[in-house]
Amino acid sequence: MAKKNKQEEEVLVDVQESLSKIEKYLEENRKSLTVIVGGILAIVVGYFAVDIFYQQPRELEGQVGIYKAQQYFESDSMSLALNGNGLDMGFVEVADKYSGTKAGNLANYYAGICALNLGQYQEAIAYFDDFSSNDPILSVIATGSIGDAFMEINQPKEALEYYSKAVNGEENNLVVPFYLKKAGILAESEGQLDQALKFYTRLKKEFKDSREALDADKYIARIETKKAA
Asked: What is the pTM of this model?
């Protein structure tokens, strides 16, 4: 019992010593700790202030600014949608003025589509490069459209790279089959038969109900004939 009481006393002493050391540290470093805590608080407050008084108003302004350009886009007035009419902003101006907002980001996507339709292929690539999204449809279209732009400027190697990126790991039935078929046809035309076969086979197996898969068996048979020759 005496031994147990002694151990408990030693533990109590250790705890007291530790608490004393902590108290001493806090006392000695009170000023610096106050500065640190104050700095962290200032950062947090500053973040929310920027979000509330700067970022949120810009988000709203961007949504208003992009509205007219979207109307032009829906009426197939690609040039007006892209560049505006002198009074209302086009997608290019919205993307620049409201960079860092959702509206500015979306404006880059629209600008890419407009530029692609207007034959401004290098510009389209740049706009799509500035667009980012986790949306399983828009992200595929943006990446695949970069491939289309490279095809238009006769750079099939780069086009195939972006078609491959567009379908890599993606599973949505709406646009992936479209770019899988494009990737297969381009790879085949470039003599990359093994790669083309992979695209066609995936098209057949994973997207068998898509319109693009209707001729998948024919494409696969054609590749196998070429490989056997």
From this structure: 0.77
Read off the pLDDT of residues 79-112 as tens digits, 9 standing for 90 and up: 999 999 989 999 999 999 999 999 999 999 999 9
Confidence of residue 214 (pLDDT cuts 50, 70, 90): very high
Q: What angle do CA 216, 217, 222 make, to 5 degrees?
A: 100
Give me the residue label for tokens 């919205």: 94
- Note the pLDDT of residue 42: 43
Residue/partner pairs of 115-118 with CB below 8 Å, 24 or more apart: 115/82, 116/145, 116/148, 116/149, 117/78, 118/78, 118/79, 118/82
Q: How far is CA 193 from its chain centroid?
A: 31
Spatial contact of 86 and 69, defined as CB atoms under 8 Å apart: no
Query: Are 73 and 114 within 8 A, CB to CB?
Result: yes
Mean pLDDT of 209-214: 95
Residues 6+ apart with CB under 8 A from 127: 95, 108, 109, 111, 112, 115
Measured from the Cβ of residue 53, the count of other Cβ atoms closer than 10 Å reads: 9
The beta-carbon contacts of 81-89 under 8 Å, at least 24 apart in sequence, are 81/110, 81/114, 82/111, 82/114, 82/115, 82/118, 89/65
Per-residue confidence band for 211, with pLDDT thresholds at 50, 70 and 90: very high
For domain 133-229, give its CATH number from 1.25.40.10, 3.40.50.300, 1.10.1740.10, 2.40.50.100: 1.25.40.10
